[in-house]
Amino acid sequence: MLISIPIVFYLNVYLKKGSRLSYFIRLTFDVLYGIPSIVYGAFGFAIMIALGLRTSLLGGIIVITLLIIPIFIRSMDEVASQLPRELLEATYSLGATRLETIKVVLYQIAPGIATATLLSIGRAIGDAAGVMFTAGFTDSIPTSLSQPAATLPLSIFFQLSSPSPEVRDRAYAAALLLTLIVLVLSISGRLITRYFSKNKI
User: pLDDT tier at 95 (50, 70, 90 boundaries)?
Assistant: First the structure.
């Protein structure tokens, strides 16, 4: 979010609408948005090999962060680009600075920020390919960022192939838990969007 929000504001507040630079930036993030997560995982794995790092929770976090940044930016940008240009001009005409204008825009796109955040989280927790090479897999809970970790999708993938019924039952339990998490995120997103939409001008 610390990276995405400044980029969105730069595109919609500082740059002129329809400028070549804004078009290039949006095209770049559209391409990054469409890249499969396995490519991010392979890219992260190649960097880890070059640096002599082993699979770890930190590697998985870095890859997932790179994966969701384009999703977050493009989702918020779509909402921010729908704001009427007259709103920005009205704030400037009242003597507001660009920082004060950003506060107005931030309040107006709050539902979009909430939706983008939940979409990104949902994509992150449901991804298996991106973290397969970087986070590794283990049955133990990691106690540090340098230890391997197992995400829910990877747990489902590996445990379903086990001949043991008890292990397969854990895979079904993990699938149920993952479904419930996505359901809670979806309901939360609708509630948050409805709350902020009541206060939009």
Answer: confident
| pLDDT tier, 64 (very low <50, low <70, confident <90, very high otherwise) | confident
Cβ contacts of 156 within 8 Å, gap of 6 or more: 171, 174, 175, 178
Q: What is the DSSP string of 88-135?
A: HHHHHHTT--HHHHHHHHHHHTHHHHHHHHHHHHHHHHT--HHHHTTT
Between the CA of residue 15 and those of 20, 70, 81, 116, what are the distances in Å? Answer: 10, 19, 12, 22
pTM confidence score: 0.76
The per-residue pLDDT for 124 is 81
Helix or strand or coil: residue 78? Answer: helix
The gap between the terminal CA atoms of the chain, to the nearest Å, is: 24
Residue 200, pLDDT above cutoff 60: no
